[in-house]
Amino acid sequence: MSSQPPLAFTKMHGLGNDFVIIDLRQSSVPPQGGRLPPHLIKALGDRHQGVGCDQLVMLNHPTLEGADVLVRFYNPDGSEAGACGNASRCVAKMECARLGRDAVTLQTARGLLPARRLEGGLVEVAMGRPLLAGSDVPLAPDKQGQATDFMTVEALGQQLEGGACSMGNPHFTVFSPLNLDEGQLAALGAALEHHPLFPERANIGFAKVIGPHRLQLKVWERGTGFTPACGSGACAAAVNAIRRGVVARDQPCEVAMEHGALLVDWPSDSAPVLMTGPAVTVFEGVLSPAGLAQQTGAAKGRSHHD
Ligand SMILES: N[C@H](CCC[C@H](N)C(=O)O)C(=O)O
Predict the structure, then answer these.
(1) Is 221 annotated as a binding-site member?
(2) Which of 49, 78, 125, 274 would you label with 111, given CA atoms 20 to 30 Å apart?
(3) Are residues 243 and 163 in the same domain?
(4) How many domains does the chain have?
(5) What is the distance in A from the centroid of ligand 1 to the CA of 14?
(6) Is residue 133 part of a domain?
(7) Residue 120 annotated as part of some ligand binding site
(8) The pTM is what?
(9) Is residue 90 annotated as a catalytic residue, yes or no?
(10) Where is the active site (predicted)?
């Protein structure tokens, strides 16, 4: 392990949802099948022994015509996510700077996502059309025929009203008014994330409608827990609110989270969801071979108890 070469990374965030971004096109650590080994993903995500992040993002050479960069997202539990809105804005900003352009196209598991740099440090990403069928979320096979806009799901003895969709990753947005403290809400988030209705688990949004084009949102993320903001969750919340008729689609919806708001525009059913918000570079760093070896060992040790 002491022969492990240094590993360069960039730390960025979007509304406090933070990322360690590793460019495998330049990394000296040989990727295994285009990704870092899972124990290293866990070690880097550890806020005490690693760098700490809500998601680890890996960049590589694109394989599709028209794409500038291949992007893969990982949760700190080692699982892969098909989409991550806040990290997509961060990567778009990095790639715009690298290529000296104002627009780039990201290749993700979801497909090609065009993105552009706007005034004031904002970045817009076209997140694709939301997938609304039960089989696309996905819901459990025997529940896939049910409507995904008006759903009632039972968890921890509560009947929760909400809607589900996929933005390339599964989301369930709860619209029921809840009077719970942070710990109770976390328990509900975890119960819904692992609910048998969602065989691939789900990101759980707790939304409050605060105006005809305004939502307040808190998201319990699959594989991560509560984060200060979730870009794909904000898109899903706006989409589900529009489908339920509680938000109007004639203008973009402002989705307010802990540290600020994202603008989400879904003007028609056939349109892609446009998400706009900030992307901030915090620092660039290099993990020392010794640090990496120690963290790797620690994470391996911990994983015995997972
Ligand atoms: N923070 C992300 C979502 C991460 C996705 C993840 N937690 C999952 O789908 O497993 C966002 O801004 O969209």
Answers:
(1) yes
(2) 78
(3) yes
(4) 2
(5) 12
(6) no
(7) no
(8) 0.93
(9) no
(10) 84, 84 (proton donor), 230 (proton acceptor)
